[in-house]
Each structure stands twice: as C-alpha cells, then as structure tokens.
Amino acid sequence: MKNRKIYNILLAAVWILGGASCSLDEYNPGGSSLEALMTTQDGFKQAINNCYFGLQRSFYGKQIYIELAEAGTDLWTAKQNSNTNANYFKYAEGGSMNQNMAQSIWNSGYDGIGSCNIALALADKVIDWDSEEVKNEVIAEAHFLRALYYYNLVEIFGGVTFITAKNEGVDTAPVRTEPLEIYKNCIIPDLEFAATYLPISRPKEEGRALRKSAKAYLVKAYLTTKEYGCSDYLQAAKDLADELIRDCETGGANLDTYMYPTYNDVFADANNQNNKESMFSIACSTQYGSVNKWQNNLSWMEFYCNTYYFPAIEKTEDGIKQWGGNPEGTFMPSKYLMDLYVQSDNKLDPRYAASFKTSWKANKDFTWSEDKIKEMDREGNITTNTSLAAGDEAIRVIRPEEDDYVTLAANKLKADYMIVDTKDLYGTDGKVKMNYTRQNDGKTVLNPFYYFYPSLSKFNTTNIIVSNWSKGRYGSNASIITMRMAEIYLLAAEADVYLTGGANANKYINKVRERANASQYNGAVDIQYVLDERARELAGESVRWFDLKRTGKLTEDYLQQKNPDVGQYFRDNTHTVRPIPQSFTEIIENGVEYQNPNY
Predict the structure, then answer these.
(1) Predicted pLDDT at 203
(2) Are residues 532 and 521 in contact, defined by beta-carbon separation less than 8 angstroms?
(3) How many CB atoms lie within 10 A of CB 17?
(4) Which pLDDT tens digit goes with each residue over 231-282?
(5) Radius of gyration of the chain (CA)
(6) In 3D, which of 27, 41, 211 has the Cα closest to residue 124?
(7) pLDDT tens-digit map of 268-306
(8) I need a surface site. Which of 299, 360, 405, 587 has the fewest CB within 10 A?
C-alpha cells in the first residue's frame, strides 16, 4: 500500500478522464491497452492530449495557483488585510504553515510529467508516422508541457525529484535534483525542441501549444537561470525575445504573434476566447463537455471587494453575470500597487482605470438605518428617510489624482452613497488602516471602509456559467492566458538590464506604455523599474511571486519596504519555496530530509 501511494503521487503516469474543461478529447486507457493505443499515429495523438490535463485540473486559473503565484508579494494582501488564506497571503502569520497547501500542484505536476514521459518513451513504437516531421510536431507537445510542469514545480518547491523516463518501478527514497540542473537538462532542452517543431498555428484548436508558446516560455526559462547564479543564457533570452518582437511588429507572419492596439482590447469580452495576444492559453468552454463547469477559469472570482457589505448591493445571479465579477474575492491591492499607477505628472496611468473597478451601482432599493448611519459615520443630513433606488450610485472609491477628488472627498460623509477615499484605506506606513475614529461619536472602531477598495476587473466577463447557484457552482468560460505578447517586451527589458545595465530597456518598456496610452518613460531602467512596469501591466496574471523570486526580490527586506502587512511575516531562510506536501513526505523513507528547510 505504501508503495502504491508513492507510485500514485510521484512516479506514475496517471491518465484521468473527465472533470477538465478542455478542447482536447481525452482518453482513459490503462496498462497494455495504453501501449496498444499508442502504436498508431491517430491513437498516439489521442493519448497525448492527456498530457494537458494536470494544467487544467490544478494550475492556471484555479484558486490555489492564483494564490501561490500572486499572494504573499508586494502587490496584494488578503481582503480587509485579514487572515483569510494566511498560508498564502501572510506566510501563516509567523505560525506553522499547512504543509499540504500545494498538494494539488505537486500531484498534478507529477501526473503531467508522467504522462509526458510515457508519450516520449513510446513515440518510437508508432508504426505509421506520416513522416519524421509529423512525429516531431506531435511529441513537441509533450516536451513543451513537461518543461512547463517542471518550471512550476522547481519555482514553487525548489529542487525536486527529476524523472524523464517512463517509470518502471517505485523509488521509496527519492532524491532531489537542484533547480539549475533541471533547467539545463530538461526545461531548456524540452523548450528548445518544442520551439523548433511545434506548429505555428492550429486553427480552431485553442488551448494547444504553438511554436510561439515554446519560444515565449524559453525566454522566461533562460532568464530564470540567473536566479540560480547562471548567466550563460542571458544573451539567448534577449535574442529570442527580439525575434518574437520583430515578428509581432512585422505582422506575425513567421510565428503568428500579435499585440492588440489597446490595453482594453486584451481583456474585452469579445477576446476572452481565442485571444490573439496570448502566447499560450488554457481553453475553458461548455462546448468541450466539462462535467465541472464551475471549476473552469476562476480568475474573475478572486480580486473583487465585498460590495455586498453595503446593503444597497446584494449578491444575485443576474448581478454576477452583469458585473462579471464576484463581490467576495480574496485579494486586496497593497498601497504599493496603488501608488505604482501614479505617473511623474501626478496623473494616473490609464491602466489603473482599465484594470480596476472603483464604482458600483445599487441593485436594490435601500434606506439608511440608524445602525448603518452610525457605522458609516454619516453626517446629520443623512437620516432614516434617506434612500437609494436600484440603479443609483452606491459605492465610489476615490483617490487624490482624480479630477473630482477634492469635491468628492469634502463631501464623502455627507453623501447618501459610499464615497471611500483611498486615504481611509491605507496609511503613510504602507499598511492597510485597520481602525477608524468616527466623527459622530469619537469612538475608534474597526475600519468600516476597508470592505470597499479598487478591485481588479481585467478578468471580469459576462461569459459566466452558472451550474448551481445555491451551491456556488459558477465559473467563467473565458480562456486562461498564461503568457501574452506584452510580457515578451518586458522580459526583453529585463534581459537588457542584465546585459547592458538597461541601456536599451526603455525602447521595450515604452512600447508597452505607448499601447496603454501611458506617458513615455525616459529615466534609468533597473530591475526595480522593470518590476514596477510588470506590476502595472500584469497585475493579477499569476506571475508576481515568480517575478520577485527570479529577480532576487522575494526577501524579507524588500517585502517589508513595499508591503509591510505581508513582509512582516516573510522569512528569508524559509519562504522562497513552498513546503513539500506532507502527504508525500510522510510516505517516503527520507521524508524529513526531503522537506524544505524550516517547514
């Protein structure tokens, strides 16, 4: 039984049927029937689709992955700066972390690797390949996906057990391989193979790897080796990013790359499937027959403030579909993130308004009660006869850089709706304001305004599937973009900083800023500025934790400076990797040694 558990968790190729929302037809063979299926070209193609399953089941667009990739960084804290999901947001607040917090990532990662290894091991047994070119194109998917699984496992957990062959047994005392060795011997070679042989396009097959997908992730893999003290691949990263950029700027003829003319286009409802800017996407759609449609893309659910705390707004099925966002998300932006949108001319970067929702209308009639008047510190003009009607403005979050700020701020406690000043949300110390002293009775209470904050809305979509409203089973049909063309420009800028000190980085950054109608930047570019620009462009897109780790900024000192609500709990000798799941370490013979330090 012990060996069987290890086999299932780490070393086996697990072929799973159903539950995924995927454009790929899955097959669920086992044992000898699998090998029989994969002796023909058509059967091999059918079976290799399952290599994608782990990504769709537990990775991109799922709550755990979003929290692993964005929480615990400089950009976010938990809603109301609470202890919600404290393992992710606040590193367990200095306490003992749940060692199974990333169990699904670990299990799905090795399931996927096992599937890829089987495909690569059996490719030579296919008896009817049309040509060597066709064979290479098909197995390039397995190479690409194996690299993506290992990239995530290495960056999340550190050194992991490195397996590239079809499993023939069970190792009860597995060893860990250092990250750089895995990059050099698997991630980079796999991506280089895929970048050579994957097709340039796949009409009507969203969600499958393309040549540009492999090249994009190869740029990131090359750059990430610097995290481990290696500079051998930096020029290759820059050259490959430049190749993608040249293709994009000359019409995408060679690699089918594209960048939308406006930032708003990227996240428009009309483009949330088959997004042209995407370098690689996970497809989510009811047309693909998922039995768990509410488990599709959950990005839209994670970043909204608790609008329903103000009784003029209630959570309804129609409201969810109309707003395209869920009013009980878990991510609250940090003051640092909010301040990044202020340009040198003291005007807001247009991506602030394009990325964050700051006003909501009532969806029901509402009359102020005495309790609510007191709690929200209303002035005397607001009485129990003061009402709002459905459709009236209910909540407006303001900030000093807005044109009408002075007028609105002066009247915020006189208004019959909620005007929330960001100054009431964040202190000059960079922390969320947890307390508020009321004017109406002088009492210091829990901050009544911190329920309402700018809410990341780039993932909002009316493309919502409601499977069972009463059980909270609803999700989004929007595809999950894992990387997009704008990021390639920013990776090129990062590579340029490493290679030249940033001498040419502005030209890449300003392409992204120009597309967003932001002011051009002519100052010096260092890694911090690249990170700042990545935050403005990519906030919430499941990259920030990896960004900080790659650039050496995932440190106690950095997080204390930028986001002290989170940084106070970060420990340099522990939290740069996540704990190896206890469900694995407790059933291997060397579990104590296998675990990451201090967990």
Answers:
(1) 87
(2) no
(3) 11
(4) 999 999 999 999 999 999 999 999 999 999 999 999 999 999 999 999 999 9
(5) 25
(6) 41
(7) 999 999 999 999 999 886 554 433 444 678 888 899 999
(8) 405
Neighbours of 370 (CB within 10 A): 9
Write out the H or E segment, with its range, that includes residue 468: strand 464-468
Helix (H, G, I), strand (E, B) or coil at 534: helix
- What's the CA gap between 38 and 565, in Å, rounded? 53
Contact 98, 87 (CB under 8 A): yes
**Separation CA 434–CA 463 (nearest Å):** 35
Fill in the amino acid letter for 224: T
- What is the end-to-end Cα distance of the chain in Å, rounded? 26
397: its two tokens: 């979050």
pTM recorded for the entire structure: 0.93
CA distance 168 to 587: 19
How far apart are alpha carbons 288 and 284 in whole angstroms? 8
Residues of 218-229 as b/e, b for ≥16 C-beta within 10 angstroms? bbbbbbbbbbee
Task: Give 592's strand partners.
Answer: none
Q: Is the CB of residue 304 less than 8 Å from the CB of residue 507? A: no
Q: How many residues does the chain have?
A: 599
Question: What are the backbone angles phi and psi of residue 581, rounded to the nearest 5°?
Answer: -55, 130
Report the distance separating Cα 404 and Cα 423, nearest Å: 15
CB atoms within 10 A of CB 451: 20
| Partner residues linked to 360 by β-bridges | 395
How far apart CA 174 and CA 549 sit, in angstroms, is: 26
Can you tell me which residue has the tokens 């709990």? 569
Phi, psi of 372 (to 5 degrees): -70, -35
Locate 94 and state its tokens: 């200095």
Q: Report which DSSP code applies to 596.
A: P
AA letter at 455: S
- The CA distance from 293 to 25, in Å, is 16
Cα separation of 335 and 77, whole Å?
A: 10
Lowest mean pLDDT among 320-324, 397-401, 565-569: 320-324
Tokens of 492: 């090129």
**Token pair belonging to 84:** 């919600």
Q: Residues 6 or more apart from 444 whose CB is under 8 A from it?
A: 435, 436, 437, 438
Among 47, 12, 284, which Cα is nearest to 166's?
12
**Per-residue pLDDT at 466 exceeds 70:** yes
Nearest to 209 by CA among 154, 151, 255, 171: 255
